[in-house]
Amino acid sequence: MTRPCKCGECAFFKNEDANGYGHCIITLNQYRCDDLCKFKEDHMSDVETLRALHHYQKWRRGGNGRPPHPFVIGQTIDNAIRTLRRITKDTPKF
Fold this sequence. Notes:
Layout: E1 13-14, E2 21-24, E3 30-32, H1 46-60, H2 70-90
Antiparallel strand pairs: 1-2, 2-3
Helix pairs in contact: 1-2
């Protein structure tokens, strides 16, 4: 398993100021650059998962910027699979 990243290492951490605070474009919250990733403790919501997958796909298709940290992408994929399994479990079988 990949070690959790710090916010300052993440490609989703934007607009860092002189005090080390910046904006996470996945959670839409403010964090400090030396904070550990929020997703180490909490699961992503479905909206956060979609947001992260969208940005990752844009980067993968030739977008500018740094590649997303493997920890965040791993958490995103895990949550997407968890959500898909939950949806398919709840649908009626014909």
